[in-house]
């Protein structure tokens, strides 16, 4: 501790007005103390959704009233009774006030956000309102729900894949990319990586849209298109921020890809997500975006491809053996063993009769070692690279998924629906 610094800081604190911090507090108490029935109803819906770990709340007007659904484990479910149409209009207005939107505007889409305070925690709510034929549809994304923030140990990675990612976080240079379709848990994995990279001796910066969780010690930048703080603009500025590790929410343009890869070539670590399927395909996706293979060969360290499948309820799953002439045996191919036990969903009180509880991540982790790097710069084909990756130790996603079905984490039916091809 620097005593002189402490003394100076205390002197500053004595002389400063506390008006600024007071604003936040007043807003919080105003919201908390608002006891109108409508405010309480909305508070109740958000609190229920947050407690259930829902990612989104959908409130949608229909011919005879509005329904509220929650997205739980990736699927929408009815959660409350229908709201009468006349009450719904008031509810929309209340949400608009919370988000400082234009209450009078009912014909155009509006975006906004507000903070929901609950037992000392704050939930950031990102709100989208879009006019539909029966009124205005509201979708609220729940951000910063700390209880759904997971660390690398909780993400169903095999020991081998976990070790690869831990080593990458330790070495902290090169590019780490996470790929998969929408709703494949890319953001969850990215936050797990950020937690591992977060050390006081590193300057860790992230550019996100939206910032889903606030991490102490990470310099998180919220993209704001309305004022032209785009991914590209933020990236350009951040390159002069003496960073060690840099995360970008998503690579969407050639500009972003180029700046990220260039930064990775300067001995720092960059990480991001992309909408591609397989790990090896990501290399070709980046080349399609205009990044030369010889740069990727040097810059890329690790590519993780991920999907989410239904997790079997551990309390009621039923063991069984796969019949030799079944579709499942065909799916297993050479991995088929007549005596191997797999599991089926059954349904009990703990899983509300569904047989499933939450989701399991399945992965394919590509390490760009010297051999792969050479092959990439020589311009080898997708098939050649995929074959080489497997020779060098990459476990294909299908194999990872079968391993998790063998462990009883998921069932064969769920992993058979994954698109492994593209
Ligand atoms: Zn169950």
What does this structure look like?
- With about 425 residues, the protein is an alpha/beta fold.
- It folds into two domains: about 15-145, Beta-Lactamase; about 150-415, Rossmann fold (3-Layer(aba) Sandwich), CATH 3.40.50.
- The chain is built from 15 helices and 15 strands.
- The protein has helices at about 5-15, 20-35, 35-50, 85-100, 160-170, 185-195, 230-240, 255-265, 280-290, 295-300, 325-330, 370-375, 380-390, 395-405, 410-415; strands at about 55-60, 65-70, 75-80, 110-120, 120-130, 135-145, 175-180, 205-210, 220, 245-250, 270-275, 300-310, 320, 340-345, 355-365.
- Strands 9-8-10-11-7-12-15 form a seven-stranded mixed β-sheet, sandwiched between helices. A six-stranded antiparallel β-sheet has the order 3-2-1-6-5-4. Strands 13-14 form a two-stranded antiparallel ribbon.
- Helix 7 packs parallel to helix 8 (about 255-265) and helix 10 (about 295-300) packs antiparallel against helix 12 (about 370-375).
- The longest helix has 15 residues, at about 20-35.
- The relative contact order is 0.09.
- Mean pLDDT is about 90; it is low at about 15-25.
- Bound molecules: zinc ion (ZN).
- The site of zinc ion has 8 residues, from loops.
Relevant terms:
422 residues, alpha/beta, Beta-Lactamase, Rossmann fold, 6-stranded antiparallel β-sheet, 37% helix, globular, binds zinc ion
